[in-house]
Amino acid sequence: MTNNRLSSRPATSRRERKRDQTANRLVATAFRLFETHGYEAVTMEQIAAEADVAKGTLYNYFTVKEALLAHQFREEIAEGMMAIQGALKRQSNFASRMSHLLRASTEWHKARRVYMPHYLRFRLSSVDSGRDEADLKAHSSGVRPILESLFRAGQAAGDVRSDHPAGQLAWMFEFMCLGAVMVWLRQPKGDLNREFQFALDLLLHGIAVPAIKHKKNR
After folding, report:
1. How many other CB atoms are found less than 10 A from the CB of residue 191?
2. pLDDT tens figures, 103-129
């Protein structure tokens, strides 16, 4: 992990920039330990000691170990989107843009598979009611604004229905993709891209049998 990564949110003050730098340093330290010793074996105390900060300082930034994963993954997703922006723009319609995005997402998930069960538990805990905005941001993946922009562009082009807000569609599809990841994790030799593309097909075409085809099969 490099020190000049894109931040998942813009730092608008010196204080915020310093906080982002500290958070990135803590995450970099944590991931060195995870890669060396394995995620489950590493404790928050070890991370604080290796980063040479007080344990309270670490907890002030990351309340649980899974939050370190979420921070790292938001950064990686932001960098990954920058890398494929040109390819997405070259796609002719909403379906092809989404399919390309999901293929790229497949490779990223495969590279991070060992962390996915822990990360998913953390992500899914965000559905609990009563969380404040800062806590919800800490649990987010950074994917939803990306999806929302794609849905909005699809609506503007007439490829996507516009009777629901793009943000709502993005929320629903993000959790469809999380479901696809969970199916994949239960199958050691599963094909994540196939699961993602199935989720996309459900999004685009639904699960109901077309009326004409249904009549022919009766």
Report:
1. 12
2. 999 999 999 999 999 999 998 887 654
Let me know: does 151 contact 160? Beta carbons within 8 Å: yes
Angle at 136 between CA 130 and CA 142, to 5 degrees: 160
Contact 185, 117 (CB under 8 A): yes
Q: Which two tokens stand for residue 71?
A: 């921070």
pLDDT confidence band for 6 (50 / 70 / 90) = very low
State both tokens at 96: 């092809």
Cα separation, 153 vs 110, in Å, equals 28
What region does 64 belong to: left with phi over 0, alpha with psi -120 to 50, or beta?
Answer: beta
pLDDT at residue number 7? 44
* Res. 12: pLDDT tops 70: no
Residue showing tokens 């958070």: 23
Which residue ranges form the domains of the chain, and what is each CATH number?
1-62 (1.10.10.60), 85-205 (1.10.357.10)
User: Which of 95, 90, 98 has the alpha carbon at shortest distance from 159?
Assistant: 95
Q: Residue 12 CB: number of other CB atoms within 10 A?
A: 8
A 10 A CB-CB count for 153 gives: 17
Whether 88 contacts 102, CB under 8 Å? no
